[in-house]
Amino acid sequence: MRLDTMAERPSQLDHLEALGDATRFAGQLHALIPKCALLENFSPAEVRLLAHFMTVYNAPAGTEVIHEGDGGDFMLMIIEGKVDVMKRDRWNAPQLIAVVDAGKTLGEMSMIDGEPRFASCVASEPSLIGVLDRESLARIIVEQPMLGAKILMELVLLLSQRLRATSARLLGLLDDNARNASGLH
Amino acid sequence: MRLDTMAERPSQLDHLEALGDATRFAGQLHALIPKCALLENFSPAEVRLLAHFMTVYNAPAGTEVIHEGDGGDFMLMIIEGKVDVMKRDRWNAPQLIAVVDAGKTLGEMSMIDGEPRFASCVASEPSLIGVLDRESLARIIVEQPMLGAKILMELVLLLSQRLRATSARLLGLLDDNARNASGLH
Predict the structure, then answer these.
(1) CB-CB neighbours of B27 under 10 Å
(2) Is any Cβ of chain B less than 8 angstroms from the Cβ of A37?
(3) What is the 8-class DSSP label of residue B45?
(4) Which DSSP letter does residue B99 get?
(5) CA-CA distances (angstroms) from residue B76 to A123, B1, B151?
(6) What is the pLDDT confidence band of residue A4, given thresholds at 50, 70 and 90?
(7) According to DSSP H, which parts of A72-116 are helical?
(8) Under an 8 A CB cutoff, do B164 and A108 touch?
(9) What is the pTM of this model?
(10) Sheet with A55-59: strands ordered across
(11) Which residues contact A82 (CB under 8 A, 6 or more apart)?
(12) Pairing mode, if any, of strands B74-80 and B105-106?
């Protein structure tokens, strides 16, 4: 088994310069542990192991790394730099919905469910992006089941936290609207 | 290893009659596969295996099975019956936010992250409830890693879908509010 050739390269990232698998960047990944929800319970050894399954890309400022509406089967980890998350509103105008930086992960939902991307992601600074795709994740689960379970457990945690936050915001807004509609300003 | 004694019994369910592990109900669980997001990709053999790690409870109509705000480390699967999901609004009045029936799962987020329950769940009909707790899930991951990965993968899928739906609703509402605020009725 040649670990160095295991990382996949999604064709949607063909416009980016690929820097090979993430093992060269294991030190940087390790430094991300405290600010990366996905890695927060990883040991340095687990990070090194995961690095074999990720490809790193160079994304100059202004480069789109995820395009809203595309199918997609990979997630991103921002190793260095900053990324704007933009979603088109109902008038098709792109709205900035988040700015994320090193340690944040993006695109987990499509990696898992293959549904169209919810938003676009554009590097707003020169960035280094680690990519993990579904096939690599499936391989981790088969070849390194404990690491696979750990990644999946962290993804569940991460999505739970986002769902709690989003649900609370939605319910707050529904409450406000009900209140306003009833004239209780 | 005695599989029949492996299922855990969370003390928060002490007011319910425990019917033992779910192996006796494997047939019913199997019949849920087509309508249960968690089980949809499970083989009958995997369902039987999972059943060893679940405890089944009898919940008469009116019984609360999850209490909003409680800590909690288990999830529920409705094997039979119907459950109301209620959340208190900012005036502390319980609001019905969903009605769920056989095949639906509840409480996955707290099982994983241990955060307080987002809503209360009350059986609105006599119900049979399968319970999987965090310790049992951890044991599945160690003892049956492929089954563990499958459960986690399904949980990620399920949370992704809920997060997409909730985010879309939130953004739609934010759009509406922005439109109304700008006088574009």
Answers:
(1) 11
(2) no
(3) H
(4) E
(5) 41, 25, 14
(6) very low
(7) 108-113
(8) no
(9) 0.82
(10) A17-21, A55-59, A127-133, A74-80, A105-106
(11) A99, A100, A101, A102, A123, A124, A125, A127
(12) antiparallel
For residue B2, pLDDT beyond 60: no
Cα gap A7→A2, rounded to integer Å: 10
Q: Does B88 touch chain A (CB under 8 A)?
A: no
In the predicted model, is pLDDT for residue B73 greater than 60?
yes
Closest A-chain CA to B97: A171
pLDDT for A28 beyond 90: yes
In order, the DSSP letters of A35-61 are G-TTTTT--HHHHHHHHTT-EEEEE-T
pLDDT exceeds cutoff 70 at B136 = yes
Residues 146-165 of B with CB under 8 A from A: 146, 148-149, 152-153, 155-157, 159-164
Flag whether residue A108 sits within 8 Å of chain B, measured between CB atoms. Answer: yes
User: Six-digit token pair at B50?
Assistant: 């999972």
Residue A2 has pLDDT above 50, yes or no: no
Q: Are B21 and B52 in contact (CB under 8 A)?
A: yes
- Under DSSP, the state recorded for A117 is P
Set of chain B residues whose Cβ sits within 8 Å of the Cβ of A160: 108-109, 112-113, 115, 159
Inspect the interface and report whether the beta carbons of B173 and A173 lie closer than 8 Å: yes
